[in-house]
């Protein structure tokens, strides 16, 4: 069956057949225009008598938690930079390592007393 322009959405429309194991084939033109890859994930929604597929990116829960913490730190002002050069960033990192190590040594000495 031929693929047809779908003016309401600016996309394309084509009739496809539901396979024996409940599989649908996404037409190549749509696949390429949306840059979809084999093995990708989709959210499937039912809206009244329509089925909507939305491409999704699956993110590891641990990574997601780390990113959330990173954004919270940034919003709270716990960040460094911006830096003019990579060398400036490296110098800042080394300075922070020296500061943290000094704080740890001080803490250890304080705890021994």
What does the secondary structure layout of this molecule look like, with pairings?
Blueprint: E1 4-6, E2 11-13, H1 28-33, E3 41-47, E4 50-56, H2 61-75, H3 86-112
Antiparallel strand pairs: 1-2, 3-4
User: From the structure provided, what is the oligomeric state, counting identical versus distinct chains?
Assistant: single chain
Number of strands: 4
Which secondary-structure class do the elements indicate? alpha+beta
CATH topology of the largest domain: Pemi-like Protein 1, Chain: D
Provide a brief overview of the structure.
The protein is α+β, with helices and mostly antiparallel strands and 113 residues long.
Report on the architecture of this protein.
There is one protein chain. With 113 residues, the chain is of the alpha+beta class. It has 2 domains: 4-56, Pemi-like Protein 1, Chain: D (Ribbon); 61-112, no CATH class. The protein is 42% helix and 18% strand. The strands form 2 sheets. Strands 1-2 form a two-stranded antiparallel sheet. A two-stranded antiparallel ribbon has the order 3-4. The chain is elongated. The N and C termini lie far apart (83 Å).
Please describe the structure with a list of short key phrases separated by commas or semicolons.
two-stranded antiparallel sheet; 113 residues; alpha+beta; elongated; 3 helices; Pemi-like Protein 1, Chain: D
């Amino acid at each position: 069956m031929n693929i047809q322009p779908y003016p309401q959405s600016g996309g394309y429309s084509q009739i496809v057949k539901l396979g024996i194991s409940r599989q649908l084939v996404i037409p190549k033109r749509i696949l390429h225009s949306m840059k979809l890859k084999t093995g990708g994930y989709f959210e499937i929604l039912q809206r009244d008598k329509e089925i909507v597929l939305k491409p999704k990116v699956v993110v590891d829960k641990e990574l997601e938690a780390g990113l959330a913490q990173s954004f919270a730190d940034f919003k709270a002002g716990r960040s460094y930079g911006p830096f003019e050069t990579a060398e400036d960033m490296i110098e800042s990192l080394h300075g922070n390592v020296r500061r943290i190590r000094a704080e740890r040594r001080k803490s250890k000495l304080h705890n021994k007393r």
